[in-house]
Amino acid sequence: MAVALSTLVEEANRYLNCAAISDYCPNGLQVEGRPQVLRIVSGVTASQALLDAAVEVNADLILVHHGYFWKGEDPCITGMKQRRLKTLLKHDISLLAYHLPLDLHPDVGNNVQLAKQLDITVEGPLDPSNAKVVGLVGSLAEPVTARDFSRRVQEALGREPLLIEGSAMIRRVGWCTGGGQGYIDQAVLAGVDLYLSGEASEQTFHSARENDISFIAAGHHATERFGVQALGDYLARRFALEHLFIDCPNPI
């Protein structure tokens, strides 16, 4: 049975506590489509490839982690942005996007969901003194080598990660999905043996080497596939809807 778009959006906003989170983009309903929702398509980013795939399966709503209208971007509706919005409006499909609320959520959040994939027991925030740092710290059931943990990441995410290997066995892990490589300094202060993020910067190599901790860059897209799936599943269960996750591969 279909649910009213307004009801679904209200529940998603409430569940993710959007009103309490300051972000770089609007969270929630970014493009309004048909008033009733029966089929949800979820994906990491609202790319043209995802939009086209959603049209093919007659989706009513697209749910993503990376949506549109970021602070500082050109507001003109031209080029790629025009084509994307035209696709949504032509086919009367809604776009629902959650950025930091989906990173932070304790159940369906990207960071918590990645921990489940990697068998990490969550202990708490990466930096308890700074709520803007969305990463977490946790522990493994048994210590492993950095290379063994890297293989675990590869098996879970389906891609070979970049590994900078430190000298210690891996017992405690810090991580932040997506572009969280800048939190490596907080990871050092947290006393972890390995820090994992989606991306790496030039200086990340030196921070890992000089502080003698292992570092893994597992891919921005790859580390953020699980939160949006979990949120889509939650909404599908809550309102008895159809939900289909569509993975549009991205090597970064």
UniProtKB/TrEMBL annotation:
Family matches, as Pfam families: DUF34_NIF3
Sorted UniProt keywords: Metal-binding
One GO CC annotation: cytoplasm
Superkingdom field: Bacteria
Residues involved in a divalent metal cation binding: H65, H66, D103, H220, E224
Entry GO MF terms: metal ion binding
InterPro entries attached to this UniProt entry: DUF34/NIF3, DUF34/NIF3_sf
Family, as annotated: Belongs to the GTP cyclohydrolase I type 2/NIF3 family.
Protein name as catalogued: GTP cyclohydrolase 1 type 2 homolog
Species of provenance: Pseudomonas taetrolens
Source species taxonomy: Bacteria, Pseudomonadati, Pseudomonadota, Gammaproteobacteria, Pseudomonadales
